[in-house]
Design goal:
Radius of gyration: 20 Å
Structural class: alpha+beta
Strand content: 35-45%
Number of domains: 2
Oligomer: single chain
Length: 379
């Protein structure tokens, strides 16, 4: 598995660099392309339609890349692209436009069935767009087909919360999913997750919730729970909801984090970016300062240490946009922690939701740093 990272501040310069690498003999079969929403996406998709390799793209809340030549770079207002030369028979991609009344779980079921029809043992890489798309239900739908390894992210739009996009060579949509199936018999994968938030106060019980809407905590309006700890108003969301997520201890003991998107003072509910199950134990959480970075370092190193025969060749990284807000100019240190653990090239973007499903963990996350390592198996 060979890779080349390209980054550009214009569509013209991006195409020029891709064409040059191809002229020099590089033969990509796959590309991940993360794009600031400031660019003309219709123009970009029209221009990249000439390429015959798979392209998976999304708009972002910031982009980054790292390689041996240029080091670690966290950027804004750019296009970051990784070209990958890998066995094309190990790849399959589908795109699905999500209709207004489509059920996200059913879409996930369909993607899982499609993936299984291509490879008996597989990894799914997926990118999603649409601010109201139920990513949680979608991932659970894929998992229902017995697929254990799923990675990706929800597209961003530089914190505007107006419109997000995914795209491929000849496809662009503000409410759709891209799904790439990788044959695990040919491409091995490892994943890690890092959090970095710490719970505040006593755990409380979610007494009424439906999907991503929590109505009651300990029998009282959920809004009162946040107001008690943070003294906030409707106007403070979702900004404060990103910085002070809900720590959720699910009934099976797994801990996940959920960002508050909005609060409804009329019915006392809180709307989160992912599902919160009834009977879960919850508490407000706050960032643990620079130890957020340490969590990334420890989680990535741990998974590699546990698999000494795994030799990663590249990584895809999906951190929550909230981590960028919390760490500011130190965000590059999180990315650097991944590079130091494996010394490999990587690309990624700051997402509106992180997808990291692998054995022993939940699929859809908020506030989290997800890393996927890849190695092409030697035949």
């Amino acid at each position: 598995m060979k890779s080349i990272i390209i980054h550009a501040k214009s569509i013209k310069k991006l195409l020029k660099q891709i064409d040059l690498k191809i002229e020099e003999g590089f033969t990509p079969s796959l590309s991940f392309m993360y794009v600031s929403p400031i660019f003309n996406l219709q123009k970009l998709v029209k221009k990249i339609s000439k390429y015959n390799f798979i392209i998976m793209g999304a708009t972002t809340a910031g982009e980054f890349y790292a390689n041996e030549l240029e080091g670690v770079n966290e950027v804004e207002g750019e296009i970051v692209c990784m070209l990958i030369d890998v066995d094309s028979t190990a790849l399959a991609m589908t795109v699905i436009e999500v209709g207004e009344n489509a059920k996200s779980y059913n879409i996930g079921e369909h993607v899982g069935f499609w993936g299984k029809s291509n490879f008996s043992d597989l990894t799914i890489i997926t990118l999603t767009s649409g601010l109201v798309f139920d990513n949680d239900a979608y991932i659970q739908g894929i998992i229902s087909n017995g697929i254990e390894y799923i990675f990706g992210g929800a597209a961003g739009d530089n914190f505007l919360l107006e419109e997000t996009f995914v795209f491929s060579n000849k496809f662009l949509s503000n409410h759709a999913i891209l799904a790439l199936a990788l044959d695990k018999n040919k491409i091995d994968v490892l994943g890690s997750r890092a959090f970095g938030w710490g719970g505040i106060g006593k755990e409380r019980i979610v007494t009424k919730a439906i999907k991503n809407v929590v109505y009651e905590i300990d029998g009282l309006p959920a809004v009162d729970f946040y107001k008690h700890y943070l003294n906030i108003t409707v106007d403070d969301m979702p900004q404060l909801g990103l910085s002070y997520p809900l720590e959720v201890r699910r009934r099976n003991g797994q801990v996940i984090y959920r960002a508050v998107l909005a609060m409804d003072e009329e019915n006392g509910s809180l709307i989160f970016a992912g599902h919160v199950e009834e009977k879960a134990r919850v508490r407000i959480s706050a960032p643990k300062g620079k130890s957020i970075i340490k969590d990334v370092e420890e989680s990535t190193q741990k998974v590699l240490d546990e698999h000494p025969n795994f030799n990663p060749e590249l990584a895809l990284v999906f951190p929550c946009c909230s981590r960028k807000q919390v760490l500011g100019h130190l965000t590059y240190l999180e990315i650097e922690a991944v590079v130091k653990s494996a010394n490999i090239p990587l690309v990624g973007f700051f997402a509106y939701g992180e997808i990291g499903a692998f054995p022993g963990g939940y699929g859809f996350h908020n506030e989290t740093f997800v890393t996927a390592f890849f190695e092409e198996k030697k035949v």
